[in-house]
Amino acid sequence: MNSIATDAQARDALKAGARVGLKSDKITITGGNPLKGRISVRGAKNLATKAMVAALLGETPSILRDVPDISDVQVVRGLLEVYGVKVSSPAPGELRFDTSNVEKAHFAEIDAHAGSSRIPILFCGPLLNRLGEARIPDLGGCRIGDRPIDFHLDALRAMGAIVDKSYEGIYITAPDGLHGANIHLPYPSVGATEQVLLSAVRAKGTTELTNAAIEPEIMDLIAILQKMGAIISVEPNRVILIEGVDRLEGYKHRALFDRNEVASWAAAALATHGDIFVEGAQQSELMTFLNVFRKVGGAFDVEEDGIRFYHPGGELKPVTIETDVHPGFMTDWQQPLIVALTQAPGISIVHETVYEDRFGFTEALNEMGANIVVHKQGLPDHPRRVARRDFEQAAVITGPTKLTGADVRVPDLRGGFSYLIAALTAEGQSTISNVGIISRGYEHFVDKLAVLGADFVFEG
Ligand SMILES: CC(=O)N[C@H]1[C@@H](OP(=O)(O)OP(=O)(O)OC[C@H]2O[C@@H](n3ccc(=O)[nH]c3=O)[C@H](O)[C@@H]2O)O[C@H](CO)[C@@H](O)[C@@H]1O
Ligand SMILES: C=C(OP(=O)(O)O)C(=O)O
């Protein structure tokens, strides 16, 4: 159970809509136990899945290490296999991709992956390069706003692609191949930056991407592409230059650790008055989070092999946070931290500036006793560091509030993890359903809860 699923298991899980390592979709938690102990994190969901797509560009096999056992990895694996990529697992946490027989796939097989993840949109460049066409199923991922893909499609068009949206899903061709282009992103989108990278590395000529995202996962993807033979330079001021090359080889790479998972366990340690050592966490990718964690009253010790996060005693302190692109405060960190903020005396404010609708999860926290008021149009007059966006929202959290157990349903990945933390912090029993979604991005979270001394029953 603790290793990457076999081919057959992965396919069965996909068919059944099941999630990695989970037989049930419900967990009953009795709150009040501080989470204490040592757990480890592996590669980031937001890197490993893209690294898997990059393997499709290599003429020779690639090996990815520290691959997390999460359902998004299974989805991408399944889609690669549809195109004839032979995926094997030579060792636990390791995947090997043999691309010697990449071939066109039937639409039905591709569309079987509709709604399962956002990663399929990133197959465009590699597929156009290898097969001259790309069929993209309807995308999944967390429903936290509109999540359009206009930047992706505009970039592909600028590189010579023709986009046909007359089918369900999208069909893209590049009759004359992809060519380099000057592309400016209206917003430093992570996915659109990756789209350009994965498409431009084999395009003819040079691509200049401005207003690019520079998240650590993007830098790790660039490192992988460079290992494969790409020529990519990251210039000052969010400019990335990509010189197209004629051939890319496979890579060997250890995936960057999952900084979002680390931040989530750190918030869990704080909210439950706990003490968690997260092996594999690295300081440099977490600087912004660590500053906020300290300001809220959390303590941490950075060690060579990981970071210890703990509640040092005393009262927590309220904070004001604005989510932002890197190196700002990551939007995926706000949900777990908000649970800790319900325990801080005073008023905390979280401005969500990245997505249109990312506070839906707070309703259930209020049912558990939190006092969180969501301002759907944001707080326009509030002093801000990040420029206001048209659609942003703000959450005002007044604490401390006692949380009590409730029956709640997971709405999305990070919201779901925040419910686990709330239930662990609450007095009494909570039943959380739809927890399968959490396995989209948190490897073996049930096992980790057990290691950390949580009191729960998982109905398997
Ligand atoms: C699989 C993955 O890596 N997911 C991460 C990725 O999502 P993802 O790559 O989808 O996020 P983006 O950075 O693209 O989205 C940021 C903003 O840009 C907008 N936008 C994006 C593309 C586009 O074509 N048009 C458009 O308007 C989005 O609606 C959103 O408001 O980065 C997000 C921001 O760090 C993280 O929360 C997600 O965990
Ligand atoms: C929004 C997230 O992921 P995705 O883009 O895969 O939906 C997330 O990881 O919180």
TrEMBL record:
EC class of the enzyme, as a word: transferase
Intracellular or extracellular location(s): Cytoplasm
Pathway the protein acts in: Cell wall biogenesis; peptidoglycan biosynthesis
This protein's UniProt keywords: Cell cycle, Cell division, Cell shape, Cell wall biogenesis/degradation, Cytoplasm, Peptidoglycan synthesis, Pyruvate, Transferase
Modified residue annotations for 2-(S-cysteinyl)pyruvic acid O-phosphothioketal: 142
EC number(s) reported in the record: 2.5.1.7
Catalytic residues identified in the record: 142 (proton donor)
Binding site for UDP-N-acetyl-alpha-D-glucosamine: 118, 332, 354
Catalytic activity: phosphoenolpyruvate + UDP-N-acetyl-alpha-D-glucosamine = UDP-N-acetyl-3-O-(1-carboxyvinyl)-alpha-D-glucosamine + phosphate
Positions with a binding annotation for phosphoenolpyruvate: 45-46
Residue ranges the record marks as coiled coil: none
SUPFAM superfamilies per record: EPT/RTPC-like
Swiss-Prot/TrEMBL GO biological process terms: cell division; cell wall organization; peptidoglycan biosynthetic process; regulation of cell shape; UDP-N-acetylgalactosamine biosynthetic process
Pfam families listed in its UniProt record: EPSP_synthase
InterPro entries given in the database record: Enolpyruvate_Tfrase_dom (IPR001986), Enolpyruvate_Tfrase_sf (IPR036968), MurA_subfamily (IPR050068), RNA3'P_cycl/enolpyr_Trfase_a/b (IPR013792), UDP_GlcNAc_COvinyl_MurA (IPR005750)
Gene Ontology CC, one term: cytoplasm
Enolpyruvate transferase domain residues: 30-449
Entry-linked Gene3D superfamilies: Enolpyruvate transferase domain
Function comment: Cell wall formation. Adds enolpyruvyl to UDP-N-acetylglucosamine.
Family label: Belongs to the EPSP synthase family. MurA subfamily.
Name by which UniProt lists this protein: UDP-N-acetylglucosamine 1-carboxyvinyltransferase
Organism of origin: Lacisediminihabitans changchengi
Species lineage: Bacteria, Bacillati, Actinomycetota, Actinomycetes, Micrococcales
Gene: murA
